[in-house]
């Protein structure tokens, strides 16, 4: 009787499944759900009613006592139901894991969308004309996004480089020579200073600045954190960097031809191979700086502190070193032809005898020299 009812139930379910498929379409979601439910119920009924009897007869044989068959059917049914439950548990875990992955992808997509929106809004803020505060907010947002996502750093660096390229002022007249300490750039142009901070210290490719054409820019009072400025190869011909704070900065091979750098602090800066011909560096602090191989032809170095500065192989032809203090660095191989050394203190300079002193000007009363060199007729002469 039970088998008849089971068959009738399967027949009714199959007929219902056919009706659902005919009404909704054989590939619709409702039909597929109904088909899955039909398969599930069929497997469950087979597990409870059919499989136990088949397995028990095969195991006990048809001649076994009824009580043994009943017990065998119950054992098989229990084992099958346990296996069925385990399968359902695994399916449930798989569904939960799939839902978790879907949720994670949705969250990631949402986060990426928000990041893209923030990025677009920040770029729009760079073009704001309402005031520097809005542009500064956009710059800080871009810097924050670059720090959060390293893949965005190159893009952000190029955007900020383009911003500096376009917005850094370029006076038409040469900057005046003044003894006054300039106002820090963070107060006069905080947006440009913020861009330079990122480009010089956090940009992924520090050679990016070498591609900037910042000739004759007015960046008086620019300042960088000690040792973080990486401006190797930067092009700043004729730039006004008065009062610049670049302590420990990296300016190797930078082109600073004709730059204006009075009262700049370049203590322990790396200027090896830098182009500084005609630069005005009066009253600068170049103590401990590396100027090996630098071109300082015709540079104004009046009153510059050169204590411990290395000038090996530096070109100082016609350079004005008058009143330069504490020239105690290495001058081995330096070219000092026709340099102005009046009132310069060279008593403790290293390698002076290996430097080219042809035509170097001096003052017998004010130029301080080691015992191996004398000032004769207004020029330096090495004692033999």
Topology at a glance:
Elements: H1 2-24, H2 29-60, H3 66-126, H4 132-148, H5 153-167, H6 185-188, H7 190-201, E1 373-376, E2 379-382
Antiparallel strand pairs: 1-2
Structural commentary:
- With 384 residues, this protein is mainly α.
- The protein has a domain at 2-124.
- The protein contains 7 helices and 2 strands, in the order H-H-H-H-H-H-H-E-E.
- The protein has a two-stranded antiparallel ribbon.
- Strand 1 (373-376) and strand 2 form a beta hairpin.
- Helix 2 (29-60) runs antiparallel to helix 3 (66-126) and helix 4 (132-148) packs antiparallel against helix 5.
- The longest helix has 61 residues, at 66-126.
- The protein is elongated and about 135 Å long.
- The relative contact order is 0.04.
Radius of gyration: 42 Å
Q: Please give the number of β-strands.
A: 2
How much is the average pLDDT?
80
**What structural class do helix, strand and pairing data support?**
mainly alpha
Using the alpha-carbon principal axes, give the shape: elongated
Bin the strand percentage: under 5%
Provide the low-confidence segments as ranges.
none
Overall helicity: 40-55%
Cα-to-Cα separation, first versus last residue = 132 Å
Instruction: Tell me about the largest β-sheet.
Output: 2 strands, antiparallel
**Count of individual helical segments:** 7
Biggest sheet, strands in spatial order? 1-2
State the order of secondary-structure elements, H for helix, E for strand: HHHHHHHEE
